[in-house]
Amino acid sequence: MWGYLYSKNLSPLNQLTGLQTDFLASNVVLWSIANIVTWTWTGYNMITLYAALQNIPADLYEAARIDGASGWTLTRFIKLPLLRPSLLLVLIFSIIGTMQIFAEPFVLRPLGYVPDNITPNVYLYLVASRDGNFSYAATLAILLAVFTFLLSAVFLRFTRRGGAL
Predict the structure, then answer these.
(1) How far apart are CA 118 and CA 55, in angstroms?
(2) What is the pLDDT of residues 66-119, one digit of tens each?
(3) What percentage of the chain's residues is helix, strand, coil (to nearest 5)?
(4) Which residues are bridge partners to 164 per DSSP?
(5) How far is CA 93 from CA 45, 52, 134, in A?
(6) CA distance 122 to 103
(7) Was domain 2-159 assigned CATH 1.10.600.10?
(8) 32-51 burial by CB neighbour count: b if 16+ within 10 A, else e?
């Protein structure tokens, strides 16, 4: 589907605008992949945040309204602090997911300019399968896992308040 939407000649976006935009050109291919990933995971993230919003007790809203809180005040002092653990979960999953992107650029490779090193996993795959350098690919995969873990740990460390999520 995305190959069709991003195709220079067949794209409905190009037909609607009358332009011949190449969404897989070297200067925009990363944005095109980011768009695919965003649409892929937005629903999951929204369900997570919606479930967290449903867990906020209604009496908190009622008490705040009685105290004269506006919509912005409710959001700032009730919703966001109580959504914080779920927001952190979504952000950590996004960090980990970003390091795992493989299918999107790999599927788009035959359609346009997608460099070998567009994502770490595509590069690892090509090093192992095309170059036959399995030990180097395995080493890079371990380093990627360690880097992802450290990045997530540092993120959690700097976003943690009072030792609790």
Answers:
(1) 39
(2) 999 999 999 999 999 999 999 999 988 988 888 888 888 888 888 877 787 788
(3) 75, 0, 25
(4) 161
(5) 9, 16, 28
(6) 8
(7) no
(8) bbebbbeeeeeeebeebbee
- Judge residue 119's burial from the number of C-beta atoms within 10 Å of its C-beta, 0-12 exposed, 13-18 middle, 19 or more buried: buried
**Residue whose tokens read 């979960």:** 89
Q: 155: closest CA among 120, 147, 53?
A: 147
> Mind listing the pLDDT tens digit for each residue in 138-160?
999 999 999 999 988 888 888 77
Both tokens assigned to 115: 């460099």
Structure tokens at 121: 């996993």
- One-letter amino acid of 79: K
Comparing C-alpha atoms, which of 150, 125, 147 is closest to residue 138?
125
**Which of 37, 158, 48, 56 is closest to 107 using CA atoms?**
37
Q: Which two tokens stand for residue 23?
A: 């969404």
